[in-house]
Amino acid sequence: xxxxxxxxxxxxxxxxxxxxxxxxxxxxxxxxxxxxxxxxxxxxxxxxxxxxxxxxxxxxxxxxxxxxxxxxxxxxxxxxxxxxxxxxxxxxxxxxxxxxxxxxxxxxxxxxxxxxxxxxxxxxxxxxxxxxxxxxxxxxxxxxxxxxxxxxxxxxxxxxxxxxxxxxxxxxxxxxxxxxxxxxxxxxxxxxxxxxxxxxxxxxxxxxxxxxxxxxxxxxxxxxxxxxxxxxxxxxxxxxxxxxxxxxxxxxxxxxxxxxxxxxxxxxxxxxxxxxxxxxxxxxxxxxxxxxxxxxxxxxxxxxxxxxxxxxxxxxxxxxxxxxxxxx
Length: 328
Description:
By secondary structure, the chain is α/β, with parallel strands linked by helices. It has helices at 28-44, 57-65, 78-87, 100-103, 107-118, 140-150, 169-177, 181-188, 204-207, 292-312, and strands at residues 2-5, 16-20, 47-54, 92-97, 121-127, 153-157, 161-162, 165-166, 193-199, 213-216, 225-232, 239-246, 258-263, 274-284. Strands 1-4-3-2-5-6 form a 6-stranded parallel sheet, sandwiched between helices.
């Protein structure tokens, strides 16, 4: 899969079947859309392409307004999003930098400069609630008419449902915020995880008897707290552990978000390794403790609960089992 930061240059442009969106989480609804794009691209002998945005448009406008709380938390980092898009058979991804200039394009400019000249779109699929252009002035009917005039076909994907629930990134965020990993897996089509390279931390965990693998989280995540996890990428099988995802209020006042994972009975040096942390169950919310002994006691309890979780299930769980997140 080819990844472009911004519109491809003239030499790299190729006629494509395209879809556009944030694709946060690449849930079942996204997967249905991408499967249709892949099929159309194959039928029409085009490349299957996705345009997505960095940052998320709502993050851009939230920062511009000075109220970051209005931006949605992220389900997936960019690496995980790109991997999911690749898994869905996408040939090329355009990661468009969402800035003031891009946000100012009106619907006609977006069609001409981005879709026609920039991407050579011949076939386009969007959801039934798709809006585009400055102030979201363009809608699906306008896009269909623009396609007629510019020479590309527009197809609309109806809402994808999971029973009576609309499959959406918002629904996935709600499930993750509640620690309902079984529901999140149903919406995503796979257990929820976060990947990243192991970085150096403060080394505090090892002084407390709980050495950790640390992963930097660049954006506000869709969940926080203490979790039962298993880690992929350190051996042939996933390894069980317990993790903290949040701002570590007892020992750090920087506001930085970090994913810290204590892998049970594991002592190998892992700095720089790319790992994937799969979330199994939530133990508790993040807390501020009065001192390090209190923090250590809480971590000990968390580790005991996590070990008990795996003992009941006889070790790490295969990733195709969707029972993660059942009550402890």
